[in-house]
Amino acid sequence: MTGIISCIIAGAAMSVQGVMNTRLSEKIGLWESNAFVQGTAFAASLIIALIFGRGGAGTLRDTNRLYLLGGLVGVVITVTVMLGMGKTSPAVAVSVILIAQLFTAALIDAFGIMGTEKTPFLWNKYIGLALMTGGVLLFKLKP
Questions:
Q1: 2, exposed or middle or buried, with CB in 10 Å at 0-12, 13-18, 19+?
Q2: What is the model's pLDDT at position 21?
Q3: Where are the transmembrane segments (predicted)?
Q4: Cα-Cα end-to-end distance for the chain
């Protein structure tokens, strides 16, 4: 599977999951739904790792401790997506999330954070962010 196809699937899955999680949270509560979502993700990941994994979990002690916080960031992502979609609409929430993702990723690239190769944040990226922001504002306009 190519990187672009993986990204398309990830984007579509994130949008679908965001709506599913938001609807679940309306029924059982925000933190209860987050616990259920994270718990089922853990169980599925554990089973898949046992079947298809490389057996590299033993090298966790040799990993940068910062990278071990990814699961906690996952909790923040799941909860804030549910809150955002619950207070706006899925399209607006995902649009704002995409802008925030792009801006953050551009900063990570520009400063070479967490071992990424430095990529300058040039004028075209500022224009792209401005156009995306303008698109979200247009999206929110009531006819």
A1: exposed
A2: 94
A3: 34-54, 66-85, 91-111, 123-141
A4: 41
d(CA 33, CA 35): 5
Token readout for 116 is 């990424």
Contact 30, 83 (CB under 8 A): yes
| Nearest-angstrom CA–CA distance, 139 and 9 | 23
Rg value, the chain, Cα: 18
**What Å distances lie between residue 99 and 65, 72, 87, 110, CA to CA?**
28, 22, 18, 16
State the pLDDT at residue 62. Answer: 87
Query: Torsion-angle region of residue 29: left (phi > 0), alpha (psi -120 to 50) or beta?
Result: left
67 close to 58: Cβ distance less than 8 angstroms: no
Residue 24 reports pLDDT greater than 90: yes
CB 105 within 8 A of CB 57: no
Let me know: does 82 contact 17? Beta carbons within 8 Å. no
What does the block give as tokens for 35? 């616990």
Output the pTM of the full model: 0.82
